[in-house]
Design a protein that fits this description.
This protein is an all-alpha fold and about 500 residues long. The protein contains 22 helices and no strands. Helix 2 runs antiparallel to helix 9, helix 3 packs parallel to helix 6 and helix 7 packs antiparallel against helix 8. It is globular and about 70 Å long.
Length: about 500
């Protein structure tokens, strides 16, 4: 199939947006991993379990405090600006900010008042003080995200990328490292995380003063609370179900097992979750491009786009996935210490779920692009129910292994539903010969290299980087040997190369 100018333009948008999102996300994820390593190595397994459990509870509270107001801000500010209805723009800013702020403060107070009750429920006496302090994160984080979402409505993504991403992650990591050096223990880690958020809020204030949008100056606000809430509530439900899949395992573990086992499980989760970085980066910009193609009736172009972005985001993910699956104990030892190697099998189980999550591509995003957000929400809720039920059944019997099985099963179930749906309704799927051949051949060669690489790792754990580069080389070589490069792949490569070239030129000019 030959690509035309239209397709070239779409690929350039994907390449540009994915590159920017990936760059910011990669830096934030890297800082987050460093922060996690410092926390794990500076705390006992029991204290780390209490911290992980507390953060899981707080993350649920943060999602509830949103009530979809972030998304409502972005959508309706941009919408009303398009209609030049600046009174409604002002009303949207005030409404979403007040609703989100008041709800965040109420939830913070409730968490503080019930921290003892929650601690008793989980049978973890030390959890009460952790929750009492971490409750401060709810209004702090909500302030950062709400301000960032307002600026996104004005097509200014800097606050979200910088304050909500890189700067917030950097501040927390720096303070965590400082408190670790001072041997602050669990309270020091909790305080460092809180101060990192507080410092980010303080940095936001002068930015707001100097970059205040003036389109609404002197206007009387026009409010439409019903419209904001009806738009935001379904999104809030979907966010809750997404969080359920991410944090339910830790929360249910906190009820059934000791805190040290919660800590053990939570050294595996950040590793497997970081592997979806390419899928997230592609999906972030994929939806608007796919939506435009659908609106223009270019269904065949969308099928080609889906196949190409799925193939390449997975091929980029595959080397890291194989490395983590082959050498889980060595990787955990290198990052977190030998005392956490019992989480190796848990990590392998979670990687199976992540394999399905990445190999099938942006299936949920495709449903959203087709306007089937409600159907996507149903699938997310169904998957969350599978996760909760699986955890309740399996954790009492199998502990952290049961939690990993339930999470992996829910990820597989979700991706199965979404993929089947887009195939039945739109005949979209990624499985062409040019996708299957390099994946299977790369996996086969990697398995053949397993024992020689295992021998090398017995000599030194620092073989990970050369082994990763070796697996990257294997994947690239298998794509070439199996003649799996299509014209659309060449066009995507050119778009990425042009983007990288322009970024390098900009860097050199600086």
């Amino acid at each position: 199939m030959e690509t035309d100018n239209y397709f070239e333009r779409s690929l350039k948008v994907i390449a540009k947006g994915s590159f920017l999102v990936f760059a910011g996300l990669a830096l934030s994820e890297a800082l987050g991993l460093v922060r996690r390593i410092i926390i794990v190595r500076s705390l006992s397994a029991v204290d780390y379990g209490l911290f992980a459990l507390g953060m899981s509870v707080i993350n649920f509270a943060i999602i509830i405090s949103n009530l979809g107001m972030e998304q409502s801000s972005q959508r309706f500010i941009a919408y009303y600006r398009g209609e030049k209805d600046y009174s409604s723009v002002k009303g949207t800013i005030i409404s979403t900010s007040v609703i989100s702020g008041v709800l965040a403060i109420v939830i913070m107070v409730l968490l503080m008042l019930t921290s003892g009750v929650i601690s008793s429920f989980f049978k973890k006496p030390g959890l009460a003080q952790v929750l009492l302090l971490l409750a401060l994160l709810v209004p702090l984080y909500r302030a950062i995200m709400q301000v960032s979402s307002v600026y996104q409505g004005f097509e200014n993504t800097f606050p979200m990328a910088f304050f909500g991403g890189v700067e917030l992650s950097f501040a927390q990591t720096l303070l965590v490292a400082l408190f670790a050096l001072l041997k602050g223990g669990l309270n020091g880690v909790v305080l460092a995380v809180i101060l990192g958020h507080a410092f980010t809020v303080l940095l936001l204030l002068p930015y707001i003063r100097s970059h205040m949008p003036h389109e609404t100056d002197g206007l009387r606000p026009s409010f439409n609370l019903k419209r904001l809430l009806f738009f935001g509530l379904p999104i809030s439900v979907q966010s809750l179900t997404q969080s359920a899949i991410t944090y339910t395992d830790t929360i249910i573990l906190g009820y059934f097992v000791v805190a040290s086992q919660v800590g053990l499980y939570n050294v595996a989760t950040p590793i497997y979750m970081s592997l979806s970085i390419f899928l997230f980066a592609v999906g972030y910009i994929y939806v608007p491009v796919a939506s435009r193609m659908i609106g223009e009736g270019k269904q065949s172009k969308l099928r080609s786009l889906y196949r190409s972005v799925t193939k390449w985001q997975f091929m980029f993910t595959l080397p890291a996935l194989l490395l983590c699956f082959f050498f889980p104990s060595e990787l955990i030892t290198l990052l977190f210490g030998a005392r956490y190697t019992k989480a190796s099998f848990v990590l392998q189980l979670l990687l199976v779920g992540e394999l399905f999550n990445t190999i099938l591509g942006p299936n949920g995003n495709t449903l959203v692009a087709y306007g089937r957000a409600t159907l996507a929400m149903v699938y997310w809720v169904s998957s969350a129910l599978v996760n909760v039920c699986g955890n309740l059944i399996l954790i009492p019997r199998f502990g952290i292994t049961g939690a990993a099985i339930a999470t992996a099963a829910s990820l597989c179930f979700l991706n199965f539903l979404c993929s089947v749906s887009i195939f039945i309704n739109y005949r979209i799927h990624p499985f062409t010969l040019n996708y299957v051949k390099p994946v299977l051949s790369s996996a086969f060669v990697a398995f053949c290299l397993y024992y020689p690489m295992k021998l090398g790792l017995n000599v030194s754990k620092f073989f990970f980087l050369p082994y990763y580069l070796l697996l990257v080389g294997v994947v690239v070589l298998m794509v070439i040997i199996t003649h799996s490069i299509e014209p659309v792949d060449v066009a995507l490569y050119r778009a990425i190369r042009m983007r990288l070239g322009s970024e390098m030129k900009r860097f050199m000019l600086k």
